[in-house]
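User: Second chain of the day. Same drill as before.
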Amino acid sequence: MTKEDFQKLWTLNYPDTVPISYLFKHDYTDRWFRIHSLPESKRYPEDENEWQVLLSRQNEIITDLFGLEPPILIVTGEYNWGDDRQIHITDEEEIFKQFSFVRLDNIELHKIDAEQYDEPDIYRPAFAQTIWKPNYHDKLLREIANDNTRVFFISFDKKVIVAPYDGGVDFVLKDSLTKENFKNKYRQWLSEREDGY
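Assistant: Same format as last time:
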């Protein structure tokens, strides 16, 4: 898949946002929901038993959404705060060495949130092709759960975004009915907060 292919599919499927995962819950509230990775909304695992609970939950629901061994994309990137640093997270982090990333156009962050970002601040997204299968990405899921990196998975074919973070997983599904069906199926893993966070 080329950069142009990705951009075309992104604009077609997600015209109201950019490929930065923390924005999804604001830009697609009708199709978004979240599960927590550990009982009682505990944020970080403290032992191997809790890691197994986290990985079991995440693998179960992600496999339920994607299916077995479909082609998917992983999307990540790095922030640049206006200086001349040339940081390339996809080249420098060991966890990403197995993937072949394609860089996307820089995102000018001040155009998204002028209060939070200055004019030179940019985000450099990149994507790579892979597959989803249970436990295949456990090492990456552990890094995300430890807040060492940020990645989301996407299937344009299934219209599913899966965005793990340190504490749980955000999902954007194809429509609100599908979202409600999955929310109900995994209701024991939902946040108890009114806003679903």
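The chain has one domain: 3-13+28-189.

User: Great, on to the next one.
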